[in-house]
Specification:
With 382 residues, the protein is mainly beta. It contains 4 helices and 28 strands. Among the domains are: 5-79, no CATH class; 80-214, no CATH class. 15% of the residues lie in helices and 51% in strands.
Length: 382
């Protein structure tokens, strides 16, 4: 009997997530699944697989549960008056304005909004320009214009630090819905903190450290340095990242894609998507998913550690160059394959049946590579 733990975790997320949504008020609230729910899921897994065979999947489920509080609490809590569906508010009006903030070459900029996209790219000079696009919808033209009058954007600047945020009135069931997007040009060295509820985040050519979070939107970061990105359901794409520290990404429902990334450490986790790392150079990688595939290709470092793990998918590891490595590969219900790899085998369990494993050394064995999946296939390529 094959059990896919991603369904178990999905059930826990649904049980552990409380929300309210109606035509005029959207509230986003999250909490970790109750202990009794976690115990019940573990009991079901144990009965289905037996106490010995359930250990691997139970460990992965517990790992995924451990990620939930960090992901959920990292994204701000918003209450959005007037967030009705478009069909209830057919009239649309828009307002655009541009504000300038003086940050210096390496200042800090925080951007917060609801319902809109945030786009940031590098500009010239020491000032940042923020184009603010407010889109209001209402049942009538007057209602939509009232939304623009009452929903404002505030810029708070202290020295070389500025915060741009949306200020909503305390109206109960207002006859309008307002979303706010930002298009920003900032000095390349700006440090960014970005959050949006329901919108996409796009950042390019910014070299200062950045932290991003979104509920449900996609995140695209290009030509950057230190990155910490979190999402509740969006796809994340990182290209051309060159960092002295850690590149970290977590999402509960989307794919994670890393291309041409250099960092000391790359850490990525998702529950329902794939993790792909192509042309990645790092000393340490921890790439995991509950329900998708994990792939890695890139140069290895001496004494480096590279761990790829999934439950419901395949693991594919392709070192392009660099150090030799010690391999520890395991799968419960799949196969282990090596393609063109010269390896000194130190131990293996192969053939039909569960719990296949392979231990071996390639080259000088200076790096450590750990590959594991529950129901998929592990493939090691030359």
């Amino acid at each position: 009997m094959r059990i896919h733990s991603r369904w178990l975790v999905a059930a826990m997320i649904l049980i552990g997530t409380a929300g309210r949504a109606d035509a005029q008020d959207v509230r986003v609230q999250t909490r970790t699944p109750p202990d009794e729910v976690i115990r019940e899921v573990m009991r079901i897994v144990n009965e289905a697989l037996g106490p010995d065979l359930s250990r691997d999947i139970s460990r992965e489920v517990q790992s995924a549960i451990g990620h939930l509080p960090r992901i959920m609490t990292s994204v701000p809590h918003f209450v959005v008056p007037g967030a009705a569906q478009d069909r209830n508010f057919p009239i649309r009006v828009e307002d655009r304005e541009t504000k300038t903030v003086r940050l210096g070459a390496a200042g800090a900029l925080e951007l917060r909004t609801v319902g809109g996209n945030i786009t940031v790219s590098a500009g010239s000079g020491n000032d940042a320009t923020v184009e603010i696009v407010r889109t209001s919808r209402g049942r009538t033209d007057a209602d939509a214009k009232t939304g623009l009058e009452r929903v404002k954007v505030e810029v708070d600047q202290q020295s070389e630090r500025a915060t741009v945020s949306v200020q909503y009135p305390s109206d109960i069931r207002p006859p309008y819905s307002v979303s706010v997007s930002y298009k920003v040009k900032a000095p390349a060295g700006t440090r960014l903190t970005i959050s949006t509820l329901g919108g996409n985040i796009t950042v390019s050519d910014i070299k200062g450290d950045m932290s991003t979070s979104t509920h449900g939107g996609n995140t695209t970061i290009t030509n950057a340095r230190g990155v910490t990105a979190k999402s509740l359901g969006g796809t994340m794409t990182f290209t051309g990242i060159d960092s002295d520290g850690t590149v970290q990404a977590e999402t509960l429902g989307g794919n994670l894609d890393f291309r041409k990334v250099k960092a000391r450490r790359v850490q990525a986790s998702t529950v329902g998507g794939d993790v792909s790392a192509t042309d990645v150079t790092c000393d340490n990688a921890d790439l995991g998913t509950m329900g998708g595939n994990v792939t890695f290709s890139g140069a290895l470092s001496r004494s480096g550690r590279y761990e790829l793990h999934t439950n419901g998918g395949d693991v594919t590891f392709t070192p392009s160059s660099g150090a030799g490595y010690e391999l520890q590969a395991s799968t419960f219900a799949g196969d282990i394959r090596t393609e063109g790899v010269t390896m000194q085998i130190r131990g293996s369990v192969t053939g039909r049946g569960p719990n296949r494993s392979l231990r071996g050394t390639v080259g000088d064995g200076s790096a450590l590579v750990i590959l594991r999946t529950f129901s998929g296939t592990v493939t090691v390529k030359k």
